[in-house]
Design goal:
Largest sheet: 7 strands, antiparallel
Radius of gyration: 32 Å
Number of strands: 12
Strand content: 35-45%
Order of helices and strands: EEHEEEEEHEEEEE
Shape: rod-shaped
Distance between the termini: 77 Å
Strand order of the largest sheet: 5-6-7-11-10-9-8
Number of helices: 2
Length: 180
């Protein structure tokens, strides 16, 4: 098939990219390039879109550790060093840490008795509140006058207390380590 310049009509050689007479770029050569690489370009574009949406739409989390219990919370929470507290009186060890983001505060405390052990379910029950299941555990829920909330539950020989300034923050918290 013979080709001609679309601008001046000069006959073009088979491999020509430009017209030798007027310098017009041969549009057909661009179409050949696009046809040859159309499918790989579409696949590359889909891969880029999938990767971008994975990083943008997937909620990012962080693993935090209070005493030796691991929790998962959203990545936008920042540790509040002034709220870190560890005490040990020879029988009971208590650790608490706090995190906040722009709108919510989370504090997690873990109490345990390293030597003799404690009945964590009994201790959680003595704290009081309404029996309920949250964070994948049975425990006791309390609502405070200042519109904050807590959930206390036993985890083997540990008593865990999760305190939040907004009830919806409970949905953002997961207990990660359970085989202590």
């Amino acid at each position: 098939m013979e080709r001609y310049c679309r601008k001046c009509g000069t006959k073009l050689k088979k491999e020509a990219l430009y017209c030798p007479n007027c310098g017009e770029k041969d549009i057909a050569s661009n179409k050949k390039f696009l046809n040859k690489y159309k499918i790989p370009l579409i696949i590359a574009a889909i891969i880029v879109i999938v990767l971008i949406s994975f990083f943008v739409l997937t909620p990012q989390t962080q693993i935090i550790k209070v005493d030796d219990v691991e929790f998962e919370i959203p990545a936008d929470y920042v540790n509040e060093p002034s709220r870190t507290n560890v005490s040990y009186d020879g029988n009971v060890k208590s650790s608490a840490m706090g995190w906040s983001n722009d709108k919510t505060y989370i504090e997690i405390g873990v109490t345990r008795s390293p030597g003799s052990g404690i009945n964590s379910q009994e201790v959680a029950a003595n704290v009081g509140g309404s029996p309920t299941k949250m964070l994948g555990h049975s425990g006791y829920y309390q609502k405070y006058d200042d519109e904050s909330y807590s959930f206390v539950f036993g985890l083997k020989d540990r008593v865990c207390m999760v305190y939040v300034s907004d009830y919806d923050a409970f949905n953002d918290i997961k207990v990660v380590s359970e085989d202590l």
